[in-house]
Amino acid sequence: MHYRLSPSDLTFLYEGCKHCFVLKVKHGIAQPSIPLPAIFSTIALLQKDLYANARTESICAGPPPGVVRYGEQQVRSRPITFSGGESGCTISGRFDIVAELDDRSYGVFDFKTGKPTDEKGLMYGRQLHAYAVALEQPAEGALALAPITSLGLLYFTPDRCAQTTPPRQVLEGEMRWQPVRRDDGAFLSFLEEVVRLLDGPMPPMEPDRCDWCAYRTRTGSAQATASHSAAIVLSAGVTRPGSPAAPTGPANPACPACNGPMRRRSGKYGEFWSCMKYPACKGTRNVSGSS
């Protein structure tokens, strides 16, 4: 097996529920999205626009000196394999910003909203390491940048809301820098742990700590996805084996931004694939040649 890993899934999803992590990565069945996190994506997008081509020193104190050169771009790594293992993985996702530093190396930074903590720094560090590995070991035709010498989180902590002119408001807060120490050995060991989990038996559901598992347990919907051999038809969600309504066409493509499932939609320029997490994720693909 060769698993495609989204850097963002290596944070809250992996830590939150191993069952749901395997369900998404191995079987293409993602947890339902909820509207609230979309505001954090909106804030991050506005910050990327604000700091495009800006000096890193103008963002806040702490980041190494340089200029923000890249924002919201796709990365894809070449296959990553592990000694003695049959399965491997690739990394596919979108970083927030990359700065070209004054010493001609690069820094990969992510915007976060909230208060920085050491625990969050360790967890989000996986995401930053994934981007760094993908940029330094890119797939053919993918964005290549090297060396990556700095990783860090740019935290926006709102502490004041003010009205400018009705009905306009502004949200103010401090920007803080949280550096992340690069440790490729530890990160590759973590990836190997992830691949072993995906190769192994399906982890048990965790209804006591995962709301999605609790919902599926209480409604009886877990039966449709509990087995490794369950039929998966992404265009219609989860289809139980033997269902007469099961389509026989090709599976929907994975989102290029988050690696989640997509659905076919119609827009002003015709049909296209849209991430099922929209608007939290705005990944799209053309219908032609997408699968």
Main β-sheet, spatial strand arrangement: 2-5-6-7-8
**What is the string of SSEs from the N terminus onward?**
EHHHEEEEEHEEHHEEE
Structural class: alpha+beta
Distance between the termini: 18 Å
The helix content is: 10-25%
Strand content: 25-35%
Q: Helical element count?
A: 6
Low-confidence stretches: 226-250
> What is the gyration radius calculated from CA atoms?
20 Å
Mean pLDDT: 85
Major β-sheet profile: 5 strands, mixed
Shape: globular
Number of strands: 11
Describe the overall structure.
It is a single chain. The protein has 291 residues and is of the alpha+beta class. The chain is built from six helices and eleven strands. It has helices spanning 12-16, 18-27, 38-50, 118-136, 184-199, 211-219; strands spanning 2-5, 66-71, 74-76, 88-94, 97-101, 106-113, 148-163, 169-180, 262-267, 270-275, 284-286. The strands form three sheets. The protein has a five-stranded mixed sheet with strand order 2-5-6-7-8. It has a three-stranded mixed sheet with strand order 1-4-3, covered by helices on one side. β10 (270-275) and β11 (284-286) form a beta hairpin. The longest helix is centred in the middle third of the chain and has 19 residues, at 118-136. It is globular and about 50 Å long. Residues 226-250 have low confidence and may be disordered.
